[in-house]
Design goal:
Elements (H helix, E strand, L loop, with lengths): L2 H12 L6 H12 L6 H11 L5 H13 L3 E6 L2 E6 L6 E6 L5 E5 L2 H10 L7 E6 L2 H10 L1
Parallel strand pairs: 3-5
Antiparallel strand pairs: 1-2, 3-4
Helix pairs in contact: 1-2, 2-3, 2-4, 3-4
This protein binds zinc ion (ZN) (2 copies).
């Protein structure tokens, strides 16, 4: 099993959450994903692990993961996508609007320092930058 999925499950059960099979399926899907996923995509993938799972369970599990700080939401266009966050502190999400890959980039020390000095307390520590990733740019150039 995916190591990240295992860590998350451990930490959630330590926090008192019941890890039902559908919940576990959602956790595994998100932990294995290489790009951001829409809730409907999470549902499709989770159904391969547990066919009984429904969209309501997907949403509830996503909320639980977000509350516990394992998940980030990214907005691409009008759509909402989710991904597993691996960075704890202040960082950037470089979101590709073509392939929806999200690359995490840690903020520089000086930026973290300036934020602290401003006295502002942030609840959400990821900054989103939407654009086109290097791979998609190369693909575009090749198609021209
Ligand atoms: Zn992140
Ligand atoms: Zn891309």
């Amino acid at each position: 099993m995916n190591k990240r999925a295992l860590e998350i499950k451990k930490s959630l059960s330590a926090a008192g959450y019941r890890l039902t099979r559908p919940r576990q399926a959602v956790i595994e899907v998100i932990a294995c994903a290489r790009r951001s996923l829409s809730p409907a995509e999470v549902l499709n993938r989770a159904r391969k692990r547990d066919p009984r799972i429904g969209l309501a369970t997907v949403y509830r599990t996503l909320e639980m993961l977000q509350r516990e700080g394992f998940l980030d939401r990214v907005g691409i266009g009008s759509q909402g996508y989710v991904l597993m966050c691996t960075e704890q502190g202040l960082h950037f999400h470089l979101v590709c609007e073509r392939c929806r890959t999200v690359t995490e980039l840690r903020a520089s020390r000086s930026l973290v320092h300036r934020l602290r000095r401003s006295g502002f307390i942030s609840h959400r520590s990821a900054i989103e930058i939407v654009g086109i990733c290097a791979r998609c740019q190369r693909k575009c150039a090749a198609e021209r």
